[in-house]
């Protein structure tokens, strides 16, 4: 497993991160035993960065990782946690709370669920419009000083917020969606991050399975599956997007690789400051994703991929209209 430094002040981490969200119901039912086996297999393969959120499964994901960590030396992994998302008992969403007192409360519960005394990278999941980012980062800085967190990260915020946050405390990375069909960060956000020495943990590299090469034309319908509400999986958008995947498949097969491996390798090739977050829920999908490290893309390969899937090729936005409206990164 290759390693990369997360920004200029962040930790050295594995070149691929394991995103654990899908192990807690966000994409439909998951298998606990297989989820635990997948985490262990990832760590055995050299993955050091595990990504979660305290609201994934309303704490379920953190408890799952905590269970896995009982058999993994704590110093062998780094844990990235998002906080601030509010849930209700029915599983619904109730907004964001990034007040300093809430930050400390969320962290207390996270440490307990994970069974650890510190979090390696702690980040607000979304910008709270009611709380200046300076106040949230200031509270996180106090937690760094107290030793409860090692580094501060951001998630889904735009250039102005990034600059304001970095003026308060050094920022290790921005976690944001980035893939062949979600390239919005390239115009302004990525250049600003590079200017400031902030790394990227790129989630959605397979666009929630759309770019996996394993998705068929069947639309997700379950209320427990985020994709049932994703515009890219609706109506004619799905057929259009799957046609892009088939174009990628031709390129992948000509190079002896899979669509998923090609898509992950493309993200990794966009810069040494980018860590793809792979959302594998099974050991089979994990092994396929890990093998993307063996894919070396030449300039000609990259040109062919981008000709097949131009930056604006996808049909449908990455979230529904209501969620897009609250994304600071989209402003």
Structural class: alpha/beta
User: Roughly how many Å is the radius of gyration?
Assistant: 19 Å
Strand portion, in percent? 15-25%
- The sequence of SSEs as H and E is EEEHEHEEEHEHEHEHEHHEHHH
Spatial strand sequence of the major β-sheet: 3-4-5-8-9-10-11-12
Task: Give the count of helical stretches.
Answer: 11
Tell me the CATH architecture.
Alpha-Beta Barrel
For this structure, what is the CATH homologous superfamily?
NADP-dependent oxidoreductase domain
What's the overall geometry?
A: globular
- Main β sheet profile: 8 strands, parallel, barrel
Count the strands? Answer: 12
Rounded to the nearest angstrom, the distance between the terminal CA atoms is 36 Å
Specify the CATH class. Answer: Alpha Beta
Overall structural domain count: 1
The parts where pLDDT drops under 50 for at least 5 residues are none
What is the fold named in CATH at topology level? TIM Barrel
Give average pLDDT, whole number.
94
Helix content: 25-40%
How would you describe this structure to a colleague?
- This protein is an alpha/beta fold and 331 residues long.
- The protein has one domain: Alpha-Beta Barrel (TIM Barrel).
- It has helices spanning 32-44, 60-69, 100-114, 133-146, 159-168, 189-196, 235-254, 259-268, 283-290, 299-308, 321-325; strands at residues 3-5, 12-14, 17-19, 49-53, 78-83, 85-87, 93-96, 119-124, 149-155, 173-177, 199-203, 274-278.
- A hairpin with a 5-residue loop joins strand 6 (85-87) and strand 7.
- Helix 1 packs across helix 2, helix 3 (100-114) packs across helix 4 (133-146) and helix 4 (133-146) crosses helix 5.
